Amino acid sequence: MPAADNIRNFCIIAHIDHGKSTLADRMLMGTGAMDERTKKEQKLDSMDLERERGITIKAAAVSVEHTYNGKLYELNFIDTPGHVDFHYEVSRALAACEGAILVVDATQGVEAQTVANLYKAVDADLELIPVINKIDLPSAEPDKRAMQVEEVLGLDAADCVMTSAKTGVGVPELLDAICERFPPPKGEPDAPLQALIFDAKYDDYRGVIVYFRVVNGHFKKGDRILMMGAKRTYQVTELGKFKPDMHPTPEPFEAGDVGYMVAAIKSLEDVNVGDTITLDTARCDKPLPGYQEPQPMVYCDFYPSGDTQFDELRDAIARLHVNDASFTYEPSNSEALGSGFRCGFLGMLHMDIIQERLEREGDVSIVQTAPTVTYEVVITGKGGVKQTIQITNPSELPDMGQVREIREPIVAAEIITPTTSIGDIMKLCENRRGIYKSQKFLADDRQILEYDLPLAEIIYDFFDKLKSITSGYGTMDYHVTGFKADNLVKMDVLVNGSPVEALSLIVHRTKAEFRGRHLLKRLKEQIDRHLFEIPLQAAIGGKIIARETIKSVGKNVTAKCYGGDVTRKRKLLEKQKKGKERMKRVGTVDIPQEAFMSVLDTGE
Amino acid sequence: MNLPINRTTPEHIGPTDPKQDTGNAPNPEAQNPQARSAPGGFQGLYLHLPFCFHKCHYCDFYSVVPAKEPARTNGNAENAPDIQDAFTAALCAELRRWVVSLQDQGEPLAPATVFAGGGTPTFLKPSCWKTLLHDLHGHRVLQHVDEFTVEANPETVTPALMDMLVDGGVNRVSIGAQSFDRGSLKALERWHDPDNVPRAVELCRNAGLDNVSLDLIFAIPGQTLDMLNRDLERLLELQPEHLSIYGLTYEPQTALTARLRVGQVQRVDEDTERAMYDHVMTRLDAAGYEQYELSNWARRDPTRDLRCRHNLGYWQNHNWLGLGPAAASHRDGQRWRNAPNLPRYVSGSPNPPRVDEETLPPPLRFGEQLMLGLRTSAGVERAWIDAALEPGDARNAYLEEVIALGLLEKTESHLRLTRQGRFVADTILARLL
Asked: What are the residues whose beta carbons fall under 8 Å from the beta carbon of A168, sequence distance 6 or more?
């Protein structure tokens, strides 16, 4: 292995779709780690879903070699997720690096996540190389974008490397710049071992593959290690590098090295990104800073539907959790929907991905309830003592008589929008109870807006609204900053006289009537007419604030059914029956999946 | 041609007592979906005569509009062999094949009912009818037939044809009146003159027919309750023995459905359609007709059972044999259909290609029999349902739920739709399959 002086650990950060993964591929080809023959587009994104959605879900790390000025360098590059839901994973990937390549699309320029990721890289004390990518496109304006990088991000325009990941132009220059400008890793090779876990993947044959960066000390195959946060010890059975395939390395890994570890770890549940690895026999004093338990912010319930049984759903979730521990789950019970699971996610995209993977890989069919955020509820507990509890479901809300206040998560959001849309975006934010923080001009007719917004107000359609207002040009980034009390109430929905928990929601008091009326209207559209009339009601603490009625079926009868019609008519009825089976039966009412999601529709 | 045919009422079909509750079938055996002939025996024979002079826009039955051949316009029509002759030859060949093969199986083809549908059976050339009737008699197929129905279009009924049909054993005619309102007929793309309906009925009477059925359609685009009422009154003036009254169905792959999709026609709203069906039931009951099936009414007659026994066979899941292109057959749970394609029917003679062959597993047969049996006013036997459903089956609870809603009811022996239940039969059934 090259000496630490010739190692460069860096990551690539970018706004989504700015060509990060393609650039990574091109760099693999530029260093000979991958050629046209073995090239599978976006090599670093290995999950099918990633490729389908064109986004990077799990970070990947690859070691390649590059000769610069007659010296051989080892470049370890760490591909990071580009979506807001995966902030924490990004921050851990950054902590494993000394440098960051900041990719900016030559046609689109600086976007919200470019800014957010830059701040994170600066926070992590990384050296930066700005890259203007996609310069091959006819609409590319590389010089203008370089100026924007200087004006908006404060990086020297002259430092920008111009590339086209598609054609390979500029990639050799970029590799040289990495060797020249990024500092070598620091660290004490003789100190007690401290290695940062910045990612982990599950392999069916080998168990968990842990991605690490040695910060101080050294270790080798056969050592007994301790994961300090998880407090678990393992025997290291293999250490190696991704080149880009797994490549076992017999030599010890020293301060500055990046690689993977296999240690007969059975489940991803046992490994936490951000945790510190040390030697069990020669422990370091304290773990590396920055470790956090994953904090789910969005929760929803999964219930089995159709032919799927509870046991099948449970097994599918457990299986998925073994190789994706980023979500949480626990059994839940709903009077209306039966037995299922309450699951926690980093965000909405994360939730969608997990649901899809469950249905696809676990072959189960799921009814998903509307996602809600975590609330902090201050209650008067036993003996009048003030107590704070966390709830992830409106149905967990204690009796309102006990409740002193309800606090909801607040995010700091940065929105980049064309100046022409600024009024509409501000209106949108204000409608969602946003608090204005600041407004800054970016170059060329764009502005950056900062708002504090309740997370609950943006988890569903905020991003879609933002995109539609700005004709697709608006971008957003956010992070949760804390909890804040507000005038929040629980609204119940009664279907045919019975409350359906999965439809209840916590809303701001001033919006309750509007949301209630809108929700019932949506339910009326989505629930089929039944054999009987179905009253729908929205209520706050027993007081009805809105009502609707679904009329009973008027006429639904096959007029003609003679000999030649039997088979076809039976099949038609079977189709109707199948449709009903996909729904969830609540009492005697069949409610389709979409209805549970209509809770989220704000009606704007 | 005056061939002998048994026109007496066989003992197993008893007369209807008009004072009896319509739901209590005069003949439980005939109402029980389980009651079937000995395996293999066909109780019904269906003949599909596919020719029409025009394709009506709501109709999804298989039909062919013959090209106007030069031979037909130069006066030689009856002599030149055409597609109708080729079809008739193929139909007779298929009949012969079945007669022979059933004979070999020791179950001669000896149905109790024959039904000639279409298409427009009365559009088939008289010479073809002559051949067909000759063969039916020649093979002794009609020996035990006590009901022989032919569907007729009001325009194509002629005295000569009627005489020939009656002589050939036909004792029941079903005339597609559909509506008496010119606007409604136009909406359906029916091109007969409504005044031809009474004329057709009269021709039937003159030919000696004492069992005439009329078809009517309601919920036609543009139709109001008043218009339907006028149609009903005109229909009743003709004193038919039997009535089939259908809510218009938008069948897939019909011109009408295509026009509905592009917004050229407007569906009658559900509430009006319900009111129409309600009115039909009330009015016909008052006029002395018994609703024995969701869309079928028979005049109450102390001396005769005027229900269509051939069609009852469908709802009671009897065995029947269908001949002709697109004709469906059923034999002990096995269903099949001749391919709906006249050239292939003719070229494949006497073994036309089949489609939609299926033998349902018992759980699906349950739903099918329920779907059919609940159409009849008698309903289905409770003992049969109890035997088919496990005690833990969720459908038991659902049945009780629907009974509690007053849409199904139990008689001593049967489960049947109530009057309210008839409006929503499909919604009920969709859970019971």
From this structure: A26, A29, A30
